[in-house]
Design brief:
The complex is a heterodimer of chains A (95) and B (592). Chain A is mostly helical and 95 residues long. Helices cover 82% and strands 4% of the residues of chain A. Chain A has one domain (2-89). In chain B, the strands form 2 sheets. Chain B has a two-stranded antiparallel sheet with strand order 1-3. Classes of the chains: A mainly alpha (95), B mainly alpha (592).
């Protein structure tokens, strides 16, 4: 019996570790997109995008004033959706 | 009905609503007072977070900041929304799992150190108090303009209202009033913007109208770029400032947002970890409704104002003094002149008011040729733009009444959230956490209410006697939140940094950022005590307003280095970190 609980907690620990690694991967990818659409397209890469015209100005201006905000929204909802699924996959969701 | 009566009706009705909600949602326990009993639906919490977060700065100042600078001030738009991504991914779910009442409580427990908790409380109180001064001043200004009382009386009325619902309702009362305040403020912000967007571009959605075309088929932004450059101003859509500061300023606002205690606190009110994730998304939905409209409000107001001053085109004659006096379209100028936030002067005595950039060489040439002796729009305070906007666009009287109620809703909702953060820091972290740990729940609740009443009194006093640095202190609040609170929370969840590392990191980030700001803005913001200016900053050209991000990097670096050199964290703290990372068991995490 003692052995069994020990085994159970060991397995849980392992699944906890794998869950955390998967979470970190999702966070990492999300933050790359976060930075790319704000600091990237909105500021640093704006000169490269200046050829793409949007409503009297260029794509970089649109990203800086609106596009980045829309991307942020999509990112947060994507993360919430993805993580709730991950919680269930690894059996760490709230009962 | 005259304008004053309409304003009074709108403001009075909105206040009656807030008080009604406060009576309905009284807090009976510490859990209700600090975390609304953890029973708030994620969408409701998102809406309350949006009202909590969007202050007088978002509602009154931001569109004006964008209107008169253009693209470079997009930093505000990206910075004040991008922080929610960091909150949702890096902080909110884990802090909800931890399941306590305050930010400093997490820091104290995770770093098993009352010192860490105390340093966090100090950061929190400085951030929140500086922030609340701005809100109280905003309440005074809005009252002064719309209800024709002097700003002192306005401020006192505002303080009584906040007292009534924040002290009795606690987090529960504040949450539900903030929902009502959100509805008032978003209607007030978007309705005039829809009218103006329809007038200028024919598109009822301002965010789309911004990239639409004016009546003659030219894109709005192209028309704006042309008209402002013809008057010698910087091109609206161009990048005129320096890139390094724009990047660092945006980053500072983002991590500052994620580190502001009154925002983080809101995520303690939802029932589950998964709700905390959804809730951050909903908060950003409600914030985005205003933030996607703001750049349209800014650009359209800039175009309207510039065209009003040059009714015959930039090459023709400027607006005449006679027209300003007699034409109804210019009534707003007289109204705002009385507040001292708008001023003009016919310097060359030609009966016309020439508005142009007197520092541009091309305009100096034209001025010499036409006999102008300088820009004659001598004073235009950015903060009046949103409030004056409906008058500038000649909108109906009820829209102006709505704007008055909206501005007050924005300032009051943020003030209440900040006061709640301050009172919980005092009653829960200082009293229960450090001074009188055996205090009963009933006495703690009383202490929370008393400390909130004291905080309101202090904030009102500071609002009445502003130290004259309301604008600078906002930079301080964000700089401190970015350099002290955000990094330590993140390391608490994502790393095994120990207590020595956390305390050293927080102090290094806090002190270096504080000193850098004081070196540029004056010690304790006393004028003429600064050694540097933001025009010629001390370190690598980084302005003091952009320094929060650097402070955060210093915090991380110091914490990791010190942590490596000292004893690793004990086993039970390691287990605490593991448990915070996993959602299961959040329901079981008790209030104590």
């Amino acid at each position: 019996m003692a052995d069994h609980t020990h085994h159970g907690s060991h397995a849980r620990e392992k699944s906890g570790e794998a869950y955390w690694k998967a979470n970190l991967r999702i966070i990492f990818v999300s933050l790359i997109i976060w930075a790319l659409c704000s600091f990237g397209f909105g500021i640093l890469l704006r000169p490269m995008l200046s050829g793409i015209r949007v409503g009297g100005t260029d794509l970089g201006f649109w990203f800086a004033q609106q596009g980045s905000i829309l991307v942020f929204l999509v990112l947060i909802f994507f993360y919430a959706f993805r993580m709730n699924k991950l919680d269930k996959e690894y059996g760490v969701d709230e009962e | 009905m005259d304008q004053f009566t309409i304003n009074l009706l709108f403001v009075g009705a909105s206040f009656a609503l807030y008080i009604g909600i406060a009576i309905w949602a009284r807090a009976g326990s510490t859990s209700e007072f600090y975390a609304a009993g953890r029973g708030v639906h994620p969408v409701t919490n998102g809406m309350a977070t949006a009202a909590d977060w969007m202050s007088a700065a978002s509602f009154l100042s931001m569109a004006g900041l964008i209107a008169f600078t253009g693209y470079d001030n997009s930093a505000y738009l990206m910075g004040w929304t991008g922080g929610y991504v960091l909150l949702a991914l890096l902080l909110a779910p884990y802090l909800r799992k931890f399941g306590k009442f305050t930010v400093s409580e997490f820091i104290g427990d995770r770093f098993y150190s009352p010192t860490a908790r105390l340093v966090a409380v100090i950061c929190l109180i400085i951030c929140s108090v500086t922030y609340v001064i701005g809100q109280m001043t905003g309440v005074g200004v809005a009252f002064g303009r719309f209800l024709e009382v002097d700003s002192t009386t306005g401020l006192l009325i505002g303080a009584v209202i906040v007292f009534a619902y924040a002290v009795f309702g606690g987090m529960k009362g504040v949450t539900y009033t903030q929902v009502a305040q959100y509805v008032v403020l978003i209607l007030a912000y978007t309705i005039p913007a829809i009218f103006i967007s329809l007038q200028l571009t024919g598109n009822p959605i301002p965010a789309l109208g911004l990239f639409g075309s004016t009546a003659d088929g030219t894109p709005l932004l192209e028309t704006l770029d042309q008209i402002v450059t013809e008057l010698g101003f910087n091109e609206y859509t161009a990048h005129n400032g320096d890139t390094l500061n724009m990047v660092l300023f945006t980053l500072s606002l983002m991590i500052g947002t994620a580190g502001l205690p009154h925002v983080i606190m809101r995520f303690f009110t939802v029932p589950k970890v998964s709700d905390a994730r959804w809730s951050a998304g909903w908060a950003l939905v409600f914030i985005a409704l205003l933030y996607l409209t703001a750049p349209a409000v800014g650009a359209m107001a800039r175009l309207n104002i510039t065209q009003q001053f040059w009714p015959n085109g930039t090459e023709g004659a400027a607006v005449s003094l006679e027209q300003i006096e007699n034409d109804d379209a210019y009534d707003w100028m007289a109204t705002w002149q009385q507040t001292g936030m708008l001023g003009w002067e016919d310097k060359n005595g030609d009966g016309l008011i020439q508005y142009y950039n007197e520092n541009s060489p091309a305009m100096q040439e034209r001025a010499a040729a036409e006999g102008w002796t300088g820009n004659e729009l001598t004073n235009f305070n950015n903060d009046i733009l949103v409030l004056a906007n409906p008058e500038i666009a000649n909108l109906p009287a009820w829209v102006i009444g709505l704007i008055a109620a909206g501005g007050l809703a924005a300032a009051l909702s943020t003030a209440a959230g900040l006061l709640l953060a301050i009172s919980s820091a005092v009653s829960h972290d200082l009293m229960k956490g450090q001074l009188t740990p055996n205090i009963s729940e009933k006495s703690e609740l009383m202490a929370a209410r008393v400390s909130m009443a004291v905080a309101i009194a202090v904030a009102t006093w500071l609002g009445l006697n502003p130290p004259g640095f309301a604008a600078q202190t906002v930079a301080l609040a964000f700089g401190l939140a970015a350099s002290s609170i955000f990094p330590v929370l993140m390391m608490g969840i994502f790393s095994k940094v120990n207590k020595q590392g956390a305390v050293a990191g927080m102090l290094a980030g806090l002190i270096i950022t504080l000193v850098y700001i004081f070196l540029h803005k004056g010690w304790l913001f006393i004028p003429d005590t600064n050694s540097f200016t933001d025009a010629d900053p001390l370190f690598m050209g980084i302005k003091s307003t952009s320094f929060g991000a650097v402070g955060a990097i210093i915090n991380f670096a110091v914490a990791f280095t010190v942590s490596k050199m000292t004893k690793p964290i004990p086993q039970e703290i390691s287990e605490l970190v593991e448990s915070v990372r996993i959602p299961r068991g959040a329901g079981a995490a008790t209030d104590h």
